[in-house]
Amino acid sequence: MLNFAGQLINLFAAMLLLISFAMLSQRRVLSLINLFALQGLVLAVSTTVVAYSSNQHHLYYSAGLTLLLKVLVLPWILHRLIRKLNVKWDVETMFNIPTTMLVGIVLVVFAFNLAAPISQMAGTITRGTLGIAMACVLLSFLMMITRSKAVPQVIGFLAMENGLFFAATSTSYGMPMVVELGIALDVLIGMFILGIFFFQIRETFDSLDLKHMEKLKED
Amino acid sequence: MEIFWILAIPLTGGLLLALFGCRSFAPELNATMSFATFVASAFLAFRVVNDGSFSVFNEQFFVDSFNVFLVALTAFVSFTTSLFSRPYMRIEQAHGKLSINMLRLYHSMYQLFTFTMLLVLLTNNMGIMWVAMEAATLTTVLLVSLYRTPASLEAAWKYFILCGVGLAQALFGTILLYFAAEKVLGAGGTALLWTHLDAVKSQLEPTVLSLAFVFLLVGYGTKVGLAPLHSWLPDAHAEGPTPVSAVLSGLLLNVALYVVVRSKVLVDGALGTHFAGDLMMGFGLLSIIMAAFYLSRQKDVKRMFAYSSIEHMGLVTFAFGMGGPVATFAGMLHMTVHSLTKSAIFFAVGHATQKSGTQLMENIRGLISTNPTIGWGLAIGTLAILGMPPFGVFASEFLIITTAMHAYPWTTPFLLIALGVAFAAIFSRMQEMVFGPATGQRLPHPPALIPVFVHLGLVLLLGLYIPPYLADWYRQAAALIG
Lengths: 219, 482
What we know:
The complex is a heterodimer of chains A (219) and B (482). Chain A has 219 residues and is an all-alpha fold. Chain A contains seven helices and no strands.
């Protein structure tokens, strides 16, 4: 049973990594939000499996919180935002996708190497997935760097938080509940503030393209 | 009980001001709330210094002489800044830069920002520390973009993204810390409590802790403004309203550094080496040197003083990195005097830019002849921050440099050259702004300069004579973090 659960968790971890790569190469804002919601769903399901197989009851709550926040609330806010901002059908022109993917593969190798000594020490059944969690964090970071529009950058930021959440689950069955609640609250407030902020940017620059915002530099 | 009030007052203040922030009494309400927080923190400080450290609410909150000194400082500077912001924001409103709704946002966020900083300082839980630190970023993002100018929006975006990514790394560091702690303390709520971690620090897994510290230092270091992670700092300081620059520079950077120092204590205990200290010294030294050389290239007065903040935070990080009773004492003293002096400078600079209608230094001239108090405030503040005797900054810098000479002689030339370059850059600019033929207009409201001279007076006092009571307090704290 435990072995089967372990296999299942590995499968979900692989799916997470795959979704991270898909997000890296996705140019349409709308699909990006759907991918983000899918990532949240996989995360919630895998957390539930971990909770069931390791008898860690507080993980059920984190899984529920993930489902509520990252699958329902945040994608809903994002959908509303892009509709109101009229960027729903935006397609981004991106710097050379194959190169980005290759850099992504290098990052995955790096993440596995970095995670190897730590996962050896972990006593959780999910320890093998720490490398994947770190890879997801790094890939979201790469995504933030390669994007020049505000909404995809923020999705990259949220995806990074997903990766960190996964890292916490795989090393130590999540963080203490009060901390997880606090982090969720921060993410939610942050999303509201960004929503306001997007409108301010649009009002001032007439677009959400960040290339208008490169004036402040040291000369 | 004091802890409850210290946190409850700014939180209610934030909510009240969100409701009544558009009334004409909002600035006074803001100042009253900050004053009440300050009174509560003064009571807490007396209690801790007399009775020693204690924890409350199921050990979720913890005070010792190290954090209570920062609590008192934070509450004090928030209070004086709220006094300064009263006329300052009225003048901004009279100049047509702010609408009434922006002011409401400003007052409400100001109180909530104070709340998040005090929460970082008072909580015992390393996870909640992270949560509050992130909340501090979120509350200030909209403050930095308050004027809605293209430059301020850009600065706020940069601030949000860079600090967000930085704090994401700090979160990973916290996860690693929990991972190490949970093996010793068992899973659940208590494994991230600092007091518990401190009790078992020698049993924590050294490899995990050293990796965790790297992430924590890089993460929170972004917020401290350590080079090369500092690039959000000058923009956010220059584009936000001046009271916000004053609290960002004088308080937020200290609070972020506080978290780094707390983590350092744990890592030192687990490793038994000087690894954490070496890293902090490296980052500190790099920040001092980098900031000193950027200083001379600045044209915007607030940007220049922002770089000066990077320099001084580098110096404090360096001092805490060296460790030992004298350097730690000097680091804390420097934190105090830097907060007081830098916020005083920002107050004076704020009114100077309002008079001249620009932040470009070449257009700010002759402050002494048109408004002597602003001029003298800026001149004395600048001399103090440059480390001239008899001000307190001189005392702390002297202690830091002499300790460095004994313990790490090779760092001395770097420190001295950087301080010299910074002196040359800032002093000549200050002279041109303060003396010379006058430009500028009259302000529609009388400026508030009492906070400037109160701060500078305190810095002068700390330079001439540190009351034995205060010295004892600092020594206790230095012994705690060693």
